[in-house]
Amino acid sequence: MNRKLFLAGLALVLGAGYALISFSQLRPEVLVKQRQSVMTLQGKYWYRHLRPTGQGKIPYDANLVARNVGFLDALSQMPWDGFDPSTKDVKSAALPAVYTDAAKFKEAQDRYRGEVVKLVAATKGGDEAAVKAQILAVNKACDGCHENFREKQ
Amino acid sequence: MNRKLFLAGLALVLGAGYALISFSQLRPEVLVKQRQSVMTLQGKYWYRHLRPTGQGKIPYDANLVARNVGFLDALSQMPWDGFDPSTKDVKSAALPAVYTDAAKFKEAQDRYRGEVVKLVAATKGGDEAAVKAQILAVNKACDGCHENFREKQ
């Protein structure tokens, strides 16, 4: 075989190998750590600021609401690929229903994400009462998922 | 004292107490967990997709780049309040310089954040070569901070 052709072929094979490694499945423990990181960060902005704002327990700060709703818009898209079937035996608060009733779990995800999208729109609209009401709607969607798919805390 | 006035006063005091609790300082361990969660998630989108895209090691997927750069735009704003002085004795990879050279640490944060803002703009511009070059600029800013403020991994 021509040496140049051999080297070109070798480069191709190695290149494909690299791409495969790069896209190969992450270890289940890493997937769980990533999805738990999302929950930690949603909690950071939710429990200390957005939820008490919706409940009228702290003063309404429109700039902070806009920032934190923007964060939630990103975060609310991040956890779901971490609930891969490969993670079902990793210790976490996820209930077996996540894997045995995947369609219902997907519905609960979509309901939550849908309420967050409405919250993003409400925040851009700038009507404080509408934003607060939508924060409570998001809260209900959080709880809906937690009740059926997460161990009681 | 008039009973109604007393109850109104009590409600005010309890209300203020609630707000104080709500805004009180989080435990240092919680702050560290939150900031580490941000690093985990930046890693999720950086090492598996954005960086190899910038390096030309995987095919350019404009939609995925736009989504992940949007995620990075949010994430890159989140970790910094977690490096509170109260956390300096919590075990983590943060070097003492984070707290002893706070001004230089802030500069490194701002440099990183500035490069991410430029990446967001480049992504909206839609020029693949410009996006790839800016991904590499962000990568340099990550490394700059890690070299001086994080334990060698």
Write the layout of secondary structure elements.
The structure is a homodimer of 153-residue chains.
Chain A: H1 3-23, H2 28-54, H3 62-75, H4 97-100, H5 102-125, H6 128-149
Give a written overview of the molecule.
Chain A is elongated, with a radius of gyration of 21 Å. With 153 residues, chain A is mostly helical. The first copy, chain A, has 6 helices and no strands. At the A-B interface, helix 1, helix 2 and helix 3 of A face helix 1, helix 2 and helix 3 of B.
Question: Which properties best describe this structure?
Answer:
homodimer; 153 residues; mainly alpha; 0% strand
Quick structural overview:
2 copies of one chain form a homodimer. Chain A has helices at 3-23, 28-54, 62-75, 97-100, 102-125, 128-149. Chain A is mainly α and 153 residues long.
